[in-house]
Specification:
- The chain is α/β, with parallel strands linked by helices.
- Helix content is 41%, strand content 19%.
- The strands form two sheets. It has a six-stranded parallel β-sheet with strand order 1-4-3-2-5-6, with helices on both faces. A four-stranded antiparallel β-sheet has the order 8-7-9-10, covered by helices on one side.
- α7 (152-164) links the parallel β5 (144-148) and β6 (170-174).
- α6 crosses α7, α8 (194-226) packs across α10 (243-254) and α8 runs antiparallel to α11 (258-273).
- The longest helix has 33 residues, at 194-226.
- The chain starts with a strand and ends in a 7-residue tail after the last strand.
């Protein structure tokens, strides 16, 4: 399938629409993660619908000293990948097309959630991101727009903007795509030297360590439910040599666990990576409520996001995984 390259919004608006339009917004340098988004959009739009991929490197979301000029621009390859993945059109507007007359004086504010984590590390980033997303939603006029879970805070803010400001569009999140060794796919991975890439694996390894610690905790909780800690039960178990296992299950399940243990397991991996050559320089490790990206406490129940950001050499990378916390005695 060949995607049509469009540069002007009027040309996109002139296209006949017979079904749903699904839009995938990107800054280009497309990879398999983007291809997954496009294939998902194709399924949602169906054979009668239309899939549009936007390619726009937004200057508003790059701060001083960030990699705006260095960001890879590979439009010809992007158009080819988009078409191969199921896109009907690639909308690649100029800066003047998106921001006629220069940078907009009126912008969208990301609010308190936009000042946390990525927002604290990159002041103004989310205001610029939401402003261009709002602009591109108006310019492309989709029925549904798809974004990756790898940028979890971005996805949460877009959903909040669409809900709070009554945008008539459905927002769909698509799970993170990883390479075989676990590294989350990113356009910035191409900046990494072989040695830096080995260090960068600590991001996903830290997340997996936190996830595995949580899974082990839940398994022990399940064990504790099966083996109540009563004297009579312990005496009965001792006859078949299970008393120690029962005691261990209760001890671990009722003490060292929860969000604190997840953070500790992940941080251990990151601390080790800080001693590598080249080292990993941690920006943040956070275990947050996805509704507002505030840190969760030990009594938290429900969906959470374990997120990490770090620099390896000159490259800054982010990653996250979802976790679910349930009260003791209930499955998570």
């Amino acid at each position: 399938m060949t995607a049509t390259l469009l540069r002007i919004a009027a040309d996109l608006h002139a296209r006949a629409r017979t079904g749903r339009r699904a839009v995938v917004m990107t800054m280009g340098a497309l990879h398999e993660g983007h291809a997954t988004l496009i294939r998902t959009a194709r399924k949602i739009a169906g054979p009668e619908g239309e899939v549009v991929v936007t390619v726009f490197v937004n200057p508003l979301q790059f701060g001083a000293g960030e990699d705006l000029d260095r960001y890879p621009r590979t439009l010809d390859a992007d158009v080819e990948l988009a078409g191969r993945s199921g896109a009907d059109a690639v909308f690649a507007p100029s800066v003047d097309e998106v921001y006629p007359g220069g940078e907009p004086q009126v912008r969208i504010s990301a609010g308190p959630m936009g000042e946390r984590l990525e927002g604290a590390a990159r002041p103004g980033h989310f205001d610029g991101m939401l402003t261009v997303v709002a602009k591109l939603l108006h310019l492309t006029r989709p029925d549904v727009a798809l974004y990756g879970h790898k940028d979890a805070q971005q996805l949460a803010l877009i959903r909040r903007m669409v809900r709070d400001l009554n945008f008539g569009v459905e927002i769909v999140g698509v799970p993170t795509v990883r390479e075989e060794d676990g590294l989350a796919l990113s356009s910035r991975n191409r900046y990494l030297s072989p040695a830096e890439r080995r260090t960068a694996l600590a991001l996903s390894q830290a997340l997996f360590a936190g996830r595995d610690r949580h899974a082990a905790q839940e398994a022990l909780r399940a064990r504790a439910r099966e083996v109540p800690a009563t004297r009579a039960r312990a005496e009965a178990l001792s006859a078949i040599g299970e008393s120690r296992a029962a005691a261990d299950a209760h001890a671990v399940a009722t003490t060292a666990g929860g969000p604190a243990a997840v953070r500790a397991a992940a941080r251990l991996v990151l601390d080790e990576a800080a001693r590598l050559d080249p080292p990993l320089r941690l920006d943040y490790l956070a275990l947050v409520d996805p509704s507002d990206f505030t840190e969760i406490g030990d009594g938290f129940t429900g969906e959470a996001v374990l997120a990490v950001a770090a620099r390896v050499g000159a490259t800054r990378l982010i990653d996250n995984i979802p976790l679910t916390f349930g009260p003791f005695g209930d499955a998570s």
